[in-house]
Amino acid sequence: MAIQYILFDLDGTLLDTNNLIIESFQHTYRKHLKKEVSKEYIVKTFGEILRTTLERECKDCVEEAIHTYRTFQIENFDRLITIHVGVKEALKALHCKGYKLAVVTSRLNESATKGLRHFGIEGYFDCLIGADDTKHHKPNPTPALMALERLGGTPEEAMMVGDSPFDIQCAKNAGILSVAVSWSALPSHLYMQHSPDYVVDSMEELVALIDRLNHKSPSSMGR
């Protein structure tokens, strides 16, 4: 069956939010735990829901820590966020080819939308599933399946693209084709151990992969 629905993770996949996330955590730990935390330590938690991380790290001040983290992100969002190379061009190409695109992220909906709008790519997406939409987050399949339900698609027609083990596991748990991007800030072995179906080195390569898979499919609708 042809791939018609492409689900994208946001942080680290479409947008480079690495510095924003790292500095937000460092600021939070500095304020509430009075300690300095390395970039490497923080990167290991990439893809994990914020509350899960802070419930583990800031057990006695979770709500205060969450507020501190989110306030820092709001104040430094434009300064520390960038868009990955080739993202705009690839999204435009996929949109023009008729694919239905969605964002599936553990980021709050308002923040995710702000990021998409900031770089002028919000209009390419037919659906956004964020942290506000469900209590079940990646690697649970629920967010991906919610996106497909809104798009009107099935797992057999879908592909999920992400940069973390949570994305790959979410795709597999949902019965969706999984694609890992090699520009992840995480060491590759962390997502490769979950055996993604494909790994791409650029957004251009992702577009070519999708077209190639559909060209091989007997129901590719002439793509």
UniProtKB/TrEMBL annotation:
Keywords: Hydrolase. Pfam families: HAD_2. The keyword Ligase does not apply. This is Pyrophosphatase PpaX. It is an enzyme of class 3 (hydrolase). One of its GO terms (molecular function) is inorganic diphosphate phosphatase activity. The lineage of its organism: Bacteria, Bacillati, Bacillota, Clostridia, Peptostreptococcales. The keyword Ion transport does not apply. Its EC number is 3.6.1.1. SUPFAM superfamilies: HAD-like.
